[in-house]
Design a protein that fits this description.
By secondary structure, the protein is of the alpha/beta class. It is 50% helix and 10% strand. The chain folds into 5 domains: 249 residues, Glycerol-3-phosphate (1)-acyltransferase, CATH 3.40.1130; 255 residues, Glycerol-3-phosphate (1)-acyltransferase; 131 residues, no CATH class; 87 residues, Arc Repressor Mutant, subunit A (Orthogonal Bundle); 108 residues, Arc Repressor Mutant, subunit A (Orthogonal Bundle), CATH 1.10.10. The strands form 5 sheets. Strands 6, 7, 8, 9, 10, 11, 12 and 13 form an 8-stranded mixed β-sheet that branches. Strands 1, 2, 3, 4 and 5 form a 5-stranded mixed β-sheet that branches. Helix 7 packs across helix 11 and helix 11 crosses helix 16. The N and C termini lie far apart (87 Å). Keywords: Acyltransferase, Membrane, Transferase. It is a peripheral membrane protein.
Length: 976
């Protein structure tokens, strides 16, 4: 059936198309089209002359070197909404720097070509000197057009012109296909140019870089089977003239309403020199056919990453799933076991499927994008996205099923990645959400945006786990990214929660069954300068019951759309290839042992949590909260405060090369880079809270005492910590302002200074932000706490190591430690750092015995680290004391409530130092830890009917429990 005309096919006046200028007798693909010459040097010179001729008198298809005022105006209006990422520009520049770029698109489009002309000029990128199937003469102006009608071009064939240009370092643009043409026509249209690229690469040493280009106007995948309408107007990705025309202006107004925007994406850049090395025995024709296949694969992969699969209707998806062997067998077995018909079990399966299944809609994603763009603008100062990490995720998605595993701190988490992926050019993931969020009317909207729902527990269910697993596997097979929260629930404390294993176990077993070829896990940190739920979290941490989710509950957050919550941060860890991870532990991926899989699931879950922590963003609010809460006095003066901020920054950047600082912190440090670099040369040692009494540059009075670190304006020698603190003072003071707006920080100005203090009722809220980064300091905090426990000038190494090991085990539910890192290695590495810093010294007192010497007074740096974990120690010590009162069986909730009540009373009496010790999640972790240690045991109680009832184990009554209590108190009650 004849299709409508095509804007893409308009090449100017009749007779000016590229084909009209081609000589008769095009070579077949199996013929060598290289011109035979005896003298290779003559060929080089002829091609050089031809390239020079085309530079002086550009081909009719060459991109315009400049745009007139009218064209610039038209371009800025028509093309400004197209997203051309900086990474695309960088890729092209890199290719041009190292060789010759050749741009390739699948389907010929004059509109796309015109856009790239505009974009390449805007970004100062190499312009194409030739393109097959298009002409730019009609946009050069009437005079140039008339001249073109009567000007004779080079006599060489178009494909030889391409070869000459590429050999002489000029970019060209190749379209592989005409819209909606048969394969034979497309081969004739473009294959000769690919063959000439092969010839050119064989004749030059510089590599040719082929860049497969996509310009996505509409983020809608093509249907699996074209219908009547598609036959007439083309598909979204291969449109005819009318659909292209309508689609272009549709995307124009959609961009204005923030419903999405067209985007450019460059797929995997192909080094033609390396490509030919893969096929050393292939002739030029064969190599060009292989090249064509590779390029089409790259374009298809990239298109799939951006657009995703063509989703099946829900009823059709259910019919496919119910006929899968796993579900067929489950239906048969359950029907026999319950003595009911299989139809009844299928009806149950269908009901469960409908409870689970997402119904993703592009329209809903567009609406969400528009609404969220408005909301983000109102409540956040911007997003900081790890673009380099995002590109690694894109690369992983080209060849693997990807599983996104973000941290979970807020309800906003459900929206963030979908918004980022949709607007940054990847298909939005399907998100595993708790079934408690399926309430009307948000539940149906979430489903349309890609949420599928999961019950909190599969306990007692036989059919539901099979339905859920088959649905999950089917969506991964189709190529949907899957997103789930491995913590299971939102963190109320700011620390990551110990992982849940259910979803991860399903995915691992699906992979080892051979049903999914490749899986890559992507740990992701989603961080907030401020979270919208902090008030409700405070109530829950203090013991209040969690409120059930509802539409009004989500929207009635005080001042939700009128408050500012700072910036939002998304950081990606390195994707974890599941196959490689199994190989790492010598597990047969197709025939694994059951115990090996269980162990691997636990190990991988902890690795994911560790990786999320490892890329967590250090923000101004987290630094501010850490310093304010860690100060042992009532208020902190501005100079001291900024010095301690600088201490933490220097520690983080000196100790961890890959620490992710927020952009605002990085910019502050970058602006003072020269001064910081000079100070680093003078001060190579680790960060200090106190300054040495005298330095080589110190003045007569020994400027820079520990009591008052100088500012950059002081006359005495300035330490790097002070300079770093002052360098970021602007953004730190903005964070203080956010806290002050919520009455969480009090600022008092005197004639002499500015003081910051935290009201006691706000300490729990600030502890949330401190806990976002406290994991960076855990090894130092545990060692410092163990050192202080001895309260002696010398400590033998072995007892010190054992006390630190005790603390490490005590906090197994508070922090995740580095995978496969032996405790002894971490301990010695941390001790060596302390010694290098001058905080302690190690002496050999015999051939096999070392002792650690601790200076007097106790180093303030060690006191600072120790105070980071004191509130947790207080909670564990109090819980141990409470166990002494256990008589009979206590429910876990009763035990935690009693701990909270005791903590409140002890705080008022002054026995507990920190208000943030009053934390329900910490007391729950302490109970869980003491159960692991065998101090208490879980007991069934017929009267209470709770699975979480505990009694004190008989062996721990009396002296054994008293020793544990004494041991814990010794860590806590040591004055600084």
């Amino acid at each position: 059936m004849a299709a409508d005309g095509d804007l893409e096919n308009f090449d100017g006046p009749a007779g000016s198309s590229d084909e009209s200028m081609l000589p008769e007798g095009l070579p077949r693909l199996d013929e060598e089209s290289e011109v035979e010459v005896d003298d290779a040097q003559a060929l080089v010179e002829r091609h050089a002359a031809l390239a020079e001729q085309l530079r002086e008198r550009p081909h009719k298809s060459a991109m315009l070197r400049t745009l007139g005022r009218l064209l610039r105006l038209i371009g800025s209006v028509l093309f400004a909404h197209v997203l051309f990422g900086q990474r695309n520009a960088d890729n092209i520049r890199d290719a041009a720097k190292r060789g010759t770029p050749v741009y390739v698109m699948q389907s010929r489009s004059f509109l796309d070509y015109l856009y790239f002309n505009y974009a390449f000029l805007k970004h100062d990128l190499p312009l194409a000197q030739y393109a097959n199937g298009v002409s730019t003469m009609w946009v050069r102006g009437p005079l140039a057009w008339l001249k073109g009608l009567f000007r004779r071009g080079p006599s060489e064939k178009p494909e030889e012109q391409v070869q000459a240009l590429v050999k002489n370092d000029e970019a060209v643009f190749i379209f592989l296909e005409k819209p909606r043409k048969e394969p034979d026509e497309n081969l004739e249209f473009s294959q000769k140019y690919l063959t000439r690229l092969i010839h050119a690469q064989k004749q030059v040493d510089e590599p040719i870089y082929v860049l497969p280009m996509l310009l996505i106007w509409e983020k809608r995948p093509d249907p699996k089977r074209a219908g009547f309408i598609e036959d007439i107007f083309g598909t979204a990705q291969r449109p005819g003239f009318f659909r292209k025309f309508v689609g272009f202006f549709q995307t124009f107004w959609q961009s204005f309403l923030r419903l999405g925007q067209p985007m450019v994406q460059i797929s995997t850049t192909l080094n033609l020199h390396e490509f030919l090395r893969e096929y050393p025995n292939a002739g030029s024709a064969d190599a060009s056919e292989l090249l064509r296949g590779r390029l089409l694969d790259y374009l298809d992969q990239e298109r799939h990453v951006i657009l995703g699969p063509t989703g099946e209707p829900v009823d059709k998806l259910y019919k496919e799933l119910i006929n899968r062997p796993a579900l067929t067998n489950a239906v048969h077995e359950i029907a026999a076991e319950e003595d009911v018909s299989e139809d009844q079990i299928r009806k149950r399966a269908k009901k469960q499927f409908e409870e689970i299944a997402a119904t993703p809609s592009l329209l809903m994603l567009k609406l969400f994008s528009s609404v969220l763009s408005f909301v983000w603008y109102r409540i956040y100062d911007g997003f900081e996205v790890d673009i380099e990490g995002f590109e690694k995720v894109r690369e992983a998605a080209r060849e693997s099923s990807i599983v996104l595993i973000p941290s979970h701190k807020s309800h906003i988490d459900y929206l963030v990645l979908s918004y980022i992926f949709y607007n940054y050019g990847m298909i939005a993931p399907l998100i595993a959400a708790g079934v408690n969020l399926s309430f009307w009317p948000l539940g149906p909207l979430f489903r349309r945006a890609g949420a599928f729902f999961i019950r909190r527990s599969f306990r007692g269910e036989k059919l539901y786990p099979v339905v859920f697993r088959e649905y999950l596997i089917r969506q991964m097979e189709e190529g949907y990214p899957i997103e789930f929260f491995i913590e299971g629930t939102r963190s109320r404390t700011g620390k990551l929660i110990k992982p849940k294993y259910g979803m991860l176990d399903m995915i691992i077993r699906a992979f080892t069954s051979g049903r999914i070829d490749s899986v890559k896990m992507v740990p992701i940190s989603v961080g907030y300068e401020k979270i919208i739920e902090e008030r409700s979290y405070r109530r829950e941490v203090l013991g209040a019951e969690k409120e059930k989710e509802s539409l009004t509950g989500l929207l009635k957050t005080p001042k939700f759309l009128t408050s500012k919550y700072g910036r939002l941060y998304i950081e990606f860890s390195e994707p974890i290839d599941l196959g490689s991870y199994l190989d790492k532990y010598d597990i047969d991926r197709l025939r694994p042992e059951e115990d090996d899989l269980d162990d691997l699931t636990v190990r991988l879950a902890h690795r994911i949590i560790y990786d999320i922590n490892h890329v967590a963003t250090v923000t101004p609010s987290s630094l501010t909260a850490t310093v304010l809460l860690n100060n042992p006095v009532r208020g902190t003066d501005r100079r001291r405060f900024l010095h301690e901020v600088g201490f933490l920054l220097y520690f983080l950047t000196h100790r961890f090369e890959s620490t992710r600082l927020s952009r605002t912190l990085r910019e502050g440090l970058e602006e003072n880079k020269k001064a910081l670099d000079r100070l680093k040369e003078r001060q190579p040692s680790p960060a200090l809270l106190s300054r040495p009494e005298r330095t080589p540059d110190a003045d007569e009075n020994g400027a820079g005492s520990a009591k008052a670190p100088p500012t950059m304006a002081d006359d005495g020698p300035v330490r790097i910590e002070t300079v770093m603190g002052e360098a970021v003072s602007t953004v730190i003071e903005e964070a203080i302002g956010l806290f002050e707006d919520n009455d969480q920080v009090v600022i008092e100005k005197t004639d002499e200074d500015v003081f910051y203090s935290v009201p006691e009722e706000s300490r729990l809220e600030l502890a949330y932000y401190r806990n976002n980064i406290v994991h960076y300091f855990v090894p130092e905090a545990l060692l410092a706490t163990a050192i202080r426990r001895f309260d002696a000038p010398e400590v033998p190494l072995e007892p010190l190591m054992e006390e630190t090991r005790f603390l490490s085990r005590l906090f197994k539910y508070e922090w995740i430690y580095e995978e496969r890192a032996e405790f002894e290695n971490v301990f010695l590495r941390t001790l060596a750092y302390f010694e290098h810093a001058g905080w302690v010294s190690a002496d050999e007192i015999s051939d096999d015995t070392l002792q650690v010497d601790i200076p007097k007074p106790f180093p303030p740096e060690l006191g600072f680290f120790r105070r980071l974990v004191l509130s947790f120690l207080e909670a564990y010590a109090l819980t141990a004391e409470l166990l002494e009162e256990m008589e009979g069986v206590w429910e876990r909730e009763d035990l935690v409530k009693k701990a909270l009540k005791r903590a409140r009373n002890d705080y008022l009496r002054g026995r507990i130092l920190y208000y943030e010790t009053l934390s329900k999640p910490t007391f729950k972790n302490a109970v869980r830890l003491f159960e692991d240690w065998g101090v208490i045991e879980r007991q069934k109680d017929a009267k209470k009917g709770s699975a979480y009832c505990y009694r004190l184990v008989d062996d721990w009554e009396g002296d054994k429990l008293a020793d544990l209590q004494s041991h814990l108190r010794a860590f806590v009650y040591q004055g600084d």
